Amino acid sequence: MDLLTDEDFRGILFAMKRLIWxxxxxxxxVLPRPAPDAFLRYVAGHTGLDTGxxxxxxxxxxxxxxxxxxxxxxxxxxxxIVTPDWEFRPYIYDRGAVTFxxxxxxxxxxxxxxxxxxxxxxxxxxxxxxxxAAGAGFSVPAGMPCRTVGDLKHIVGQxxxxxxxxxxxxxxxxxxxxxxxxxxxxxxxxxxxLSKTYLTDPRDLDAVVAAAGLARTHAPxxxxxxxxxxxDCQSVYVEVVCPEDGGEPSxxxxxxxxxxxxxxxxxxxxxxxQTIPDSSRKEFFAEALRMARMMRDLGYTGLASIDAVIASxxxxxxxxxxxxxxxxxxxxxxxxxxxxxxxxxxxxxLSRFNVRSADLQKLLELLKANGLAWxxxxxxxxxxxxxxxxxxGNIEYVILAPSWAEGRTLESGLGEILAESAPPQx
Length: 426
Hints:
Blueprint: H1 6-16, E1 28-30, H2 37-47, E2 55-57, H3 66-69, H4 72-79, H5 95-103, H6 113-116, H7 119-123, H8 126-135, E3 143-146, H9 149-160, E4 165-170, E5 179-183, E6 195-198, H10 206-212, E7 224-228, E8 234-242, E9 250-259, E10 266-271, H11 278-298, E11 302-310, E12 316-322, H12 329-338, E13 348-356, H13 360-369, E14 381-388, E15 394-401, H14 404-421
Parallel strand pairs: 1-2, 5-6
Antiparallel strand pairs: 3-7, 4-5, 4-7, 8-9, 8-11, 9-10, 10-13, 11-12, 13-15, 14-15
């Protein structure tokens, strides 16, 4: 927690508002801060949600701490609403969620012993993932987890002797945050990390040690994973679901990660995954399902996003699992709601978040006036996936269209509107 910046906190609050799209009549949702009324009405206009039937519980805080969750304001209100036949869908089924559900009478450790013992948190660890994936025969980038300065110097030196660049990843950071690249190539183009450390002498690792935050005998800021940096690869994912009844896992959606130029970290998705050779896609999907079966056999249930990078040659390396709702969960719900359950057979989806924008009402007026708003008749257009214009001045958008070409044309038109109407960055 000490490593989170104010920007990280704003990102958490921004992401939580996406979950409004998952609401259905009669549901209750707990968010750190209230969702704007205008955004709630906008979502309801697309989903048909009866806003008067839902319960939005928001203690107006930076984070949903254990104390807040178990307060009268949150737990007390839910105890007046929730009955044993309700379903519980936490963002991540960690131990805090298990404890909270138990208080509501919706969960027992007997029903989900793996999750009750921290299983979801285990899979979200990059350190655990490498051991899990390598031991099960999945292809992973060369490297190893590091707990001490000695570990770090050993593996960085070893990898730099074979390749020009390595990436250092904090164990539980997401979206490229907490990552940095170490390279002897001054011209290297970096993606998936916030910074690059250039070494003129690959033996001089003092700056790398300082940035990693490790000590001689332990990891006071958490372990890091050091891997060979693989340039010119596509970052891809599949979201899978492990059924609660122990049935066969299935793929829910797939896509490619979009990165910004500065900083070169995750900013959105392109769905479904269509930009790699069929043979690579089939292999990726098959291996992802094999991984999901292993997760299920250990006792994991629910959604998980399995990430990999794919070289132009078609070679695949798995690099992490996010055992929780993912960055595509709400996007899939939006597409499924507006187009239908088989939306990926007929449509493409482009998304981007943390985009500067005018306030929601003005933006919606501009979209409509310029023929860019979602049109159920033509089944194409721009949809606002999350609205944080009141606080940060940012939105997340989704573009649905029958083809990539139409989608990019719509995105280009949206870019022109945003460039003219968005407030300056503060």
